[in-house]
Amino acid sequence: MSMRRITARAMVGAFALAAWLGGCSGAEPPAAPPKPPAAAPAPPPAPGPAAVRPLDPGAGRPLPPMAYDAKGRRDPFAPVALAGEGKGINIAAAKLVGIVLGLNNALALVEGPDGVGYILRAGDGLGNGRVTSITSSTVTFAVGAQPGQGPSTVTLRLVMD
After folding, report:
1. pLDDT top residue among 28 and 149
2. What is the per-residue pLDDT for 86?
3. pLDDT of 112 over the 60 cut
4. Number of CB atoms found within 10 A of residue 32's CB
5. pTM for the complete prediction?
6. CA–CA separation, 85 vs 99, rounded Å?
7. Residues 56/76, Cβ–Cβ less than 8 Å
8. What is the sign, positive or negative, of the torsion defined by CA atoms of 36, 40, 45, 51?
9. How far apart are CA 56 and CA 62, in angstroms?
10. How many Å separate Cα 94 from the centre of its chain?
């Protein structure tokens, strides 16, 4: 290539580079996007329960409340009653099935008279008692006061076959 062609190509490249960099010179900052208009303050909430009010005033009429038909099954939206809430098993009728010893804690495997198993640690409640201690072969429950008696303890022992 001749020197003249190299110079011409270099000049064209330099002009293209200058034109491209001219937009990035920072001489004029780009225009800021327009700001959205300020929103009107929200109207005060209407009286009544929140489930009945429509979320948007222009949304139309609220839907009627839904009713669940259980058809003989448990209502999944109702809280589950636990064994320690008033009803449940009698600790004296339960059976200690196993003990799991860990480094920092112990678990007691207890079977109720109905055959349902429970995994308990110290402080857990079951039926009419609360676990106070777990050893390698026993679990001790503090049982609430019975009519005419004071509070007592019940100890379940692990039966070795």
Report:
1. 149
2. 44
3. yes
4. 6
5. 0.45
6. 25
7. no
8. negative
9. 10
10. 32
| Pair of tokens at residue 88 | 């449940």
- Find how far residue 60's CA is from the centre of its chain: 34
Measured in degrees and rounded to the nearest 5, phi and psi for residue 128 equal -100, 15
Cα 6-11-12 angle, rounded to 5 deg: 100
Q: Which residues, 6+ apart, have CB-to-CB distance to 117 below 8 Å?
A: 97, 109, 110, 111
Render the burial of 77-110: b for 16+ CB within 10 Å, e for the rest: eeeeeebbeeebbebeebebeebeeeeeebbbbb
Mean pLDDT of 3-19: 58
User: 91-157: which CATH architecture?
Assistant: Roll (2.30)
103-104-106 Cα angle (round to 5): 90
User: How many CB atoms within 10 Å of residue 129?
Assistant: 27
State the pLDDT confidence band at 59, using cuts at 50, 70 and 90. low
pLDDT tens across 135-154, in order? Answer: 999 999 998 777 777 778 88
SS3 66: coil
Q: How far apart are the first and last CA of the chain?
A: 102
Cβ atoms of 118 and 110 closer than 8 Å: yes
pLDDT of residue 78: 67
> What is the C-alpha separation between 83 and 81, in angstroms, rounded?
7
